[in-house]
Design a protein that fits this description.
alpha/beta; about 30% helix; two-stranded antiparallel ribbon
Length: about 280
Amino acid sequence: MDLNRAIQLGLLVKAAEAVLPENTANAAGQTVAAMYDPNNVGYKVVSAIYGNDLATDMNPDRGNQIVSFGFILQAPNNDVVIAIRGTAGIWEWIHDGEFLAVKCPFLAGAGSTEDGFTAIYNSLRIGAAATSSRLVDALTALPFNQATNALTICGHSLGGALATLLALDVAANTNFKKPTVYTYASPRTGDPLFVSTYNQVVPNTCRIANRVDLVPKLPLPPLYDHALDLYELNSVTLVPPKFLVKFEVACEHHMTSYLHLLSLLAGGTVQALDDGCVP
């Protein structure tokens, strides 16, 4: 795995998470910086991404709310990146512990996927209005600076699950046949048949997970499985014994913590932790 690239893409995901969910203004035309030596690149926002949030037993109305989920961006070299954020609802989803499965909606014979993630994925579109084009359907018609077949999809937490679903849909049903995927702290998204299909169709995937992060451990096997290829981070060192991130469930999961751990390995500028997660 290219650590510098993983950090750069993670910074784009972090920028998506910095947008308040209720902010449905389209940032098209703005520049998002992914400043990490030696890859100091400004990405142009081609479109924002919207969808329904994660409905849970504790907050069922959340599933009817249209929120911002991230960006479709284009780099100066014309490569396209889709960056998808997570949601605070992931903790309620864990608390509910239902993890029901539905048939993969966009590829026959591709097994089953977690119903909450699938419902959100089906709602993703490029406008806040219900009549807006679905994300996957809009990709080839967006006003890119120049046509490109190079597409990278990245996401954190729930966004990692959505990135996984999107990547398989894109590879199977659009002209972007070979997307590259980086996920951070993604939960398991589908059953073993879905994962087997995904691994064959989207082999260029890097799944980054902190060993002590709770979210990537759910939902449990054997009903659900993880996509390849795991790049494992460890926020605890044994020699010498040391916590690199405050040993709390939320801190071990934060995108900023993942960026911090990746930057320590990359040997460049160290990305700062959230103040409350400094050990």
